[in-house]
Structures are given as structure tokens and as C-alpha cells.
């Protein structure tokens, strides 16, 4: 067993989360996984929502934004106080009930948390993320059959969402159905989103199952509080279940869409960076290599291009503006170094959160992108 626990620990706590950048560090949970940069980002968001709330104490979005970021930062006690202060104003609002329910779950009050989330579903019956959070709460109370029903309800609203399927697989592991959990995680992996984290979960399940009959269950139940916190944060970070705009990902398509005869010569590509950073992730170099090939192909080699960074609306506008500029410069630097592209052919600009791709979900991942636009011919 010592060997098993040692292996499990070496995998790291990030292996059971789809939202490693948002894990809580509540002292009562002992998760402690936020980096210094993550805590700085949460602090900036907390300050932003505190300012909004001071300016307008009746604004529910300010209350929820402050409570949510406090929860993400591991300060669930403070989040609870914020919500309790505004209980008389918003206790009939499903969004308020949902956030308070999540806070109660993090505080270890699973019964009250589940009850609040169930009340929220009676007021908000079309939000799949709420049912996913309810499933996590039911898992915390070992009500696995009810949890599976909640996940299935979420999947009826948002079919084939890999984050929900991941949580369902973990739930099955908690209930002792490890082999079924592995099958479910393989299904989640097949959709090609959140792949790194789901693969870590799948590898963890498979490796521990091979070590002993109940290793997966033992590990999951030992780490249940941390898993619940990570799962809730993962659910929070998901966008509404609407088709995402297609991101251009191959050189031939890029060439066609940026061609001189193209009526709207602009493309959006998905570039992944380290959290709160302009450091490129290794798994994003493929799409940048395709972009480099496109910008040096045929007639396109004679043109200039704008490389624009875009963020979501999480955090302050000033911070997001700076981050988008730095990320655009990082892409230009990579293209210059890897493909010897003349820097005079690339204009790095940042738009921050000013041009959201999905205005209905300003905090959604879909808004974080790099936009490439063909300009005039180079001198």
C-alpha cells in the first residue's frame, strides 16, 4: 500500500482536475495547489469585484463574482460571509442558491450544499453546469446513483460534454465501478477537449487498478475533498452549451482563408499558454507550426499580417489588455525564430476583452484566442 500511495502522490493532485488553474486551497481541505501567479490572479479579480460591489451593493453579479473568486482562492469562509450578508436580497435567486450550495460543499456541509443546489435546479432548469455541480455534491454524500442521474441530466442538456463525462467517470470510480469509470474516461478522452487532464485521470485509474483491487477507490476517497473542489471549479469554467466557433488548425485551410482573393482574410486559432502567462505550452506548437507554414507559403509570403491576442473577461480590463499584448508578442517571437519570418511582416497587437467571440459567455474559454489577419503587401 505504501508503494501505491507513493505512486499516487507522484502523479500529483492535478491529475484529478479538469481545471488545474482553479483548484481551491481551503485550509480545511489541505489542497494547497494554487501557484503564486494563480493566487495573484484571484486577488486581482477579488479586488475588482469588491470595487464593483462597493459601487453598487445591489448588483448580484458583483456579489456572485466576489464569492466565486474567494471560493476559487480557497477562502470559502469569506465567500460564505459575502453571500450571507446579501441573503435577504438574493435568497430567491437560483444563481445565489447555486453559489451558496457550492460554498457549503467546499466547507464540508454536503447535506446543506446538495439541498441548496437542488433548490437552484427548481429555479434554473436549463443550466447543465448546475446539474453537474449537483452530481459532484451527491458524490460527496456517497449518493452515487443519484449523482449519476444528475450527470445524465447534464448530458441530456449538453450531449457529449467531456468535462461532465470526466466527472461521471470519477463518480463511477468512487462507487467501486472502476472498470466502468475507465470506459467512461476513455469516452471523455475521445472528444479531444481537456485531453491532457482526462488522460492523466485515465492513466491514474488504470495504473492504480493494476496495483491492487481497491487502490482506485482508496485513493479517490482519500482525496475526495480535493476532487470535489477541483470538479466544482471545472464545472464553473465551462461555457454555455452552444456550438463553439471553429478554430482554424491546419496549414492548407489557413492558406485558403488568408489568400489574397479571400473576402475576409482573417482566422482564429487556439493557442495555449501557461496559466496567467505568455509562455507557450508545448502542445500548442503544432498549430503555430501550421501558421508559420501558411504565412511563408506562395503569395502569402509577400504580405504583412496582424497577430492579435484576445482574452476572456475574467479579471480587470487593464490586466487583460496587457496579457493579450504579451501573448501576441510571444506568438510573433516564436514565428520569427522558428520560420525566420521578417518581424516587419507581423504586427503584434492585443485587444484584451474588448472583442469577445461569445458575448453571452464573457468568461468562457472560447474567447481566449489569437486572431490572424492579412494586411497589405510588405515593402
Characterization of this structure:
The chain is of the alpha+beta class and 379 residues long. It has two domains: 2-236, Serine Threonine Protein Phosphatase 5, Tetratricopeptide repeat (Alpha Horseshoe); 251-377, 60s Ribosomal Protein L30, Chain: A (2-Layer Sandwich). It is built from 17 helices and four strands. The chain has helices at 2-11, 36-55, 60-72, 76-85, 87-90, 94-106, 110-123, 128-140, 144-157, 162-174, 178-189, 195-211, 215-222, 224-236, 251-258, 285-295, 317-339, and strands spanning 266-269, 303-310, 346-350, 369-377. Helix 17 (317-339) links the parallel strand 2 (303-310) and strand 3 (346-350). The longest helix is centred in the C-terminal third of the chain and has 23 residues, at 317-339. The protein is globular and about 70 Å long. It starts with a helix and ends with a strand.
Proportion of helical residues? 55-70%
Instruction: Please tell me the total number of domains.
Output: 2
Shape: globular
What's the main sheet like? 4 strands, mixed
Strand content: 5-15%
Number of separate strands: 4
What is the structural class?
Answer: alpha+beta
Cα radius of gyration in angstroms: 22 Å
Q: Which class of the largest domain in CATH terms?
A: Mainly Alpha
What value does the average pLDDT take? Answer: 82
